[in-house]
Amino acid sequence: CALHIQDCLREQRANNPETPLRARIGVHNGRPLPEEGRLFGASVNFAVRVCGVAEEGEILVSDCVKALIGRHYACGERPPVGLKGFAGTHRLHALASVAVG
Predict the structure, then answer these.
(1) Residue 77: what pLDDT?
(2) What tens digit of pLDDT does each residue of 21-37 get?
(3) Cα dist from 63 to 23, 35, 47, 77, 97, whole Å
(4) For site-directed labelling of 65, which of 1, 27, 37, 45 has its Cα 20 to 30 A away?
(5) What per-residue confidence (pLDDT) applies to 4?
(6) Where are the strands (E) in 1-101, listed by range?
(7) In 10 A of CB 19, how many CB atoms?
(8) More confident residue, 99 or 32
(9) Residue 95 in contact with residue 60, Cβ under 8 Å?
(10) Going by DSSP bridges, is the β-strand pair 33-35/86-90 parallel, antiparallel, or unpaired?
């Protein structure tokens, strides 16, 4: 989904250079806590923090997401980072723009 979003935005920028749209995407795995039609919880907060570290046009995934997607997607490892509200440092991975297989 994240790859498709970035592809669509790339196409939008090519067709509308006067209004370029860019997105940073952070992906994490966990069980959110639904409440009144919204999602809360540590996994949601972690994904928000991962997104905040991403550059424009980048998709960052947490270590556990990288383990889940295995060798199906190429990822570049980034230096460990601290994320506000979460102890220690965390390894994040930049998802390549193409699936490996």
Answers:
(1) 86
(2) 999 999 999 999 999 99
(3) 21, 27, 12, 9, 18
(4) 37
(5) 92
(6) 25-27, 33-35, 38-40, 59-62, 73-77, 81-83, 86-90, 92-99
(7) 8
(8) 32
(9) yes
(10) unpaired
